[in-house]
Amino acid sequence: MFFVPDIIEKEKRGLKLSKDEIQFIIDGYVKGDIPDYQVSALLMAIYFKGMDEGETADLTMAMAHSGEMVDLSPIDGIKVDKHSTGGIADTTTLVLLPLASSVGVKIAKMSGRGLGHTGGTVDKLESIPGFRCELDGKAFINAVNTIGAAITGQSKNLVPADKMLYALRDVTATVDSMPLIASSIMSKKIAGGAEKIILDVKFGSGAFMKTYEDALRLGRLMVKIGELAGRETVAYITDMDQPLGLAIGNAIEVIEAAEILKGRGHEDLFSLCLELASQMMLLAKVEKDKTKAEKKLKASIKTGKALEQFKGIIANQRGNPRVLDDYSLLPKANHQLELTAQEEGYVKKIDAVRIGLAAMKIGAGRQKKDDIIDPAVGVWIYKKVGEKVSKGKPFAKILANDAAKLHWAADEVKSAFEFSYEQVEKRKVIWAKITKDGVREL
Ligand code: URA
Ligand code: CA
User: Fold this and answer.
1) Where in the chain are all domains bearing CATH 3.90.1170.30?
2) Nearest-5° angle of CA 208, CA 90, CA 159?
3) Would you call 162 a catalytic residue per the annotation?
4) 88 alpha carbon – ligand 1 mean position (Å)
């Protein structure tokens, strides 16, 4: 038995909390025995004093075990999960599901809806007419074993400790704490049942971590926690100073994913998907050699196998797979407006957050938990940093279902772009890779 003020006192003085003390706090909080005000004080102490890797790993495991621990053992093979810390025009999961599963990686994807500039992967897929994410446990496992991939909404009882702590952090100014962020993310991955974990830790104006150094710290910490929990973890540090892909929305992100699988689509999104998918193949042990893995993935795209795989996943979840051949079968917005360049030049900067917020406010994402997403609306950008724009030619397009919002969003997106007469360097997408052996800058 512990006395909560003693634990707070210990953390306040920067001492190391024991595993049992951490367990006591998490159990007591989830049961309702420890009140918000004591946990708030502890969170603030953690914010100022930090936690070492061991404490953070203990916190992560206590949180992971606060609810259901998903058992994926009925699925054959090694289960690899990929997680992104969040960004704008991040369509990678939509691409990875079919791409990696088309070459033998088993993907049991559990994805939340959540809040953000666009919906989550579940919302994006639900823009496909008929598509359903409500699979029961048996149907989910069965689909992954037969087809290779399936997606389902997150279990309501996954890591209740995180739901409670996150809500408390949100109102006590303790969200931006490395050990709290790392334990929040990793507890959900570990409870989700993955044996191996790939993390895409983004940095830049459109990301949670604003600097490369902070993203690197977070990535290293999460790799360490994964290893301590016996789950091999690889983290990538990637750019989010501009949107990753070209589409910011829901139905249009399905289109962009389809374009990548057809061998078209933007090279930035493609190159990141290729890196993540080949790493998934290595971790799942379906391929030993990285170069061969990439070759197989490219071949799967070239032969149409990856696109067929996407159709199979969609059909299995009652969606209409023909949307991938005929995009007009997807929900369409009533209004659209193209933004055209006034002069010839280069894109210098794109304020990803501003575009993300514009997309959210016209209905592509949720501001509040109960908001309803409009699958048809969003923003296409045609040009990324370093790319050339021509006078009178479009560089972005707004899709909206409300004429007034269309014009408002157009102004926002226009203001988010900065141009220059001089040539501008393109931004690197993948900056570093972190494994248990250390950091490799790329
Ligand atoms: N994402 C999470 O899931 N948790 C955090 O604390 C921050 C980002
Ligand atoms: Ca401590």
Assistant:
1) 332-420
2) 60
3) yes
4) 16
